[in-house]
Amino acid sequence: MFRWLLILLVLLAAVAGLLIGVLNADAVTLNLLAFQVSLPLGALVLLALVLGLLVGLVLAWLLFFLPGRLRRSNRSRSNEKGTDLTDRPNG
Questions:
Q1: CA distances from 87 to 18, 21, 72, 80 (A)
Q2: Does residue 71 belong to any structural domain of this protein?
Q3: With contact defined as beta carbons under 8 Å apart, do 62 and 51 qualify?
Q4: Residue 17: burial class (beta carbons within 10 Å; 0-12, 13-18, 19+)
Q5: Chain centroid to CA 3: how far?
Q6: Could you say which of 1, 14, 19, 52 has the lowest number of CB atoms within 10 Å?
Q7: Could you count the other beta carbons within 10 Å of the beta carbon of residue 42?
Q8: Tens of pLDDT along 53-78?
């Protein structure tokens, strides 16, 4: 079931990408400080969407997943140190 939903989602994304590319075929010039890029408007829109997705994923990883992993690692490290202290004989 999940596989079919994923295939459907990928197909819808591909069709949407094709529609954006076909309906926005006019060339535009993106003037950056260091260089100029002349691409179709649809390609620039899709490029902006992909870059936004990548930046969002990296920020989500840095803000949510990485701190959880560090907390879990610190917790397991402190648990290991705690067992070492209880295994020692007094004296």
A1: 65, 67, 23, 11
A2: yes
A3: no
A4: middle
A5: 21
A6: 1
A7: 19
A8: 999 999 988 888 888 888 888 877 77
